[in-house]
Structures are given as structure tokens and as C-alpha cells.
Design a protein that fits this description.
Blueprint lengths: L6 E6 L5 H15 L2 E6 L6 H5 L1 H12 L2 E5 L4 E2 L4 H5 L6 E5 L7 E9 L2 H16 L4 H10 L5 E3 L19 E2 L6 H13 L2
Parallel strand pairs: 1-2, 1-3, 5-7
Antiparallel strand pairs: 3-6, 4-8, 5-6
Helix pairs in contact: 3-5, 5-6
Length: about 200
């Protein structure tokens, strides 16, 4: 039995530079010979609500493709995501452990093989963001906390963070740099609430 072809999936909204970033991602997928399904989506009015679409988009893509690799369109794919393409883990989902917040996982890169476990997890994630006004990442934290063994760790180079403005040389995926005005305003408000 042959393995399903992994498909890079993402969506973008009309705000900020997302459309041009998505086009850059498409060009990079072409350069690397990667299959992709990257689509425009209408805005829901702000960054937080737009990020919440990620779970339902992934739900839709997982129904369409047997193995998907989600990447945020505002990041940069520096090299072939070999561990995601192979996805040799028994866990149906691969993600990078969170590096900066008390959460389980980053959600900028996710490799998901369609299995009953991954479908249930993604369905729960989609339901969570429908009922709670939280970011995609916080919702993913909520559902994965109750699903031990469903997600296995990718190395941090799959969600590389800059150090003093420079990404590591071995970075596979460089974390997105979205500076959409409503995202920055939300982050400023959150920073003001910290003790």
C-alpha cells in the first residue's frame, strides 16, 4: 500500500500582507516540488477571529487529503519539511512544543495524518473555537491536553524563532511575522494586563 502524498495546506485573508505571503509560499512549494492546497478566505473582521478559522479549515482539508501539513502563510519555508513528509511517528499529529508560553504546542506547523484519533481531535478543536472566543493556539492547547499520545513533538527548527533578529541556520519553518494592526493592538492590550 502506497503512502498518501502529503499536501501543504494554508489559507489567507485579505488583511495585511497575507495574500503576498501566501503567493511566496506557493512559489516555494513549487520550488521544492511539494503538493499544496492554499486558499483565500474572507475575513471574519479581526486577527483573533481569523485565526479561529484554522481549525475548521484543517478539518475541511483533512476530509479532502489523507496527510496534510499545515503552515501559517506568513512564515517562511526554508527547507524541505522532511520529518513532516515522512511522518513516521505513531501519533497522528506532529507539532512543535511551545517555546514561549505555558501551552502545549505551537500551531504554525502541524503534520496531520487522517486517522480516527486525528479526526476526533480536529473536530474537537473546531468545536472549541466555535464556542469560545480564543485563539487557534489556545483552543489547540485545550483539546490536546485531554488527548495524550495524539500529538508527537517536532524539533524546534520546525517553528524557528529569531534570536536577536536572526533565524537559526537549520530552520525548516521560520515563525510568521504578521504585523496586522489588529493583532498588534491585541498584543499591546494583553501586555498591559500583565502584572
Amino acid at each position: 500500500m502506497s503512502r498518501p502524498i502529503p499536501v501543504i495546506v494554508s489559507f489567507y485573508t485579505p488583511e495585511w500582507e497575507y495574500a503576498s505571503r501566501a503567493q511566496a509560499l506557493i512559489r516555494r512549494c513549487d520550488e521544492l516540488g511539494l503538493a499544496y492546497d492554499i486558499q483565500p478566505r474572507a475575513s471574519r473582521g479581526n486577527w483573533n477571529k481569523n485565526t479561529a478559522m484554522k481549525a475548521t479549515f484543517i478539518q475541511e482539508m483533512l476530509a479532502k487529503h489523507e496527510h496534510i501539513i499545515w503552515v501559517d502563510c506568513d512564515g517562511e519555508l526554508r527547507q524541505l519539511p522532511a520529518l513532516c513528509l515522512a511522518h513516521d511517528s505513531a501519533a497522528p499529529v506532529l507539532a512543535v512544543p511551545h517555546q514561549t508560553m505555558p501551552r502545549n504546542w505551537h500551531v504554525c506547523v502541524l503534520s496531520i495524518r487522517r486517522t480516527p484519533v486525528s479526526v476526533r481531535l480536529v473536530d474537537a478543536w473546531a468545536e472549541y473555537v466555535k464556542t469560545c472566543d480564543v485563539t487557534d493556539e489556545l483552543a489547540f492547547h485545550g483539546v490536546t491536553t485531554g488527548a495524550p499520545g495524539a500529538v508527537a513533538a517536532l524539533p524546534t527548527r520546525y517553528c524557528a524563532l529569531p534570536r536577536q533578529g536572526v533565524f537559526p541556520a537549520d530552520a525548516v519553518w521560520c515563525l510568521g511575522i504578521s504585523a496586522s494592526p489588529d493583532k498588534m493592538a491585541m498584543k499591546t492590550r494583553q501586555a498591559g494586563k500583565k502584572p
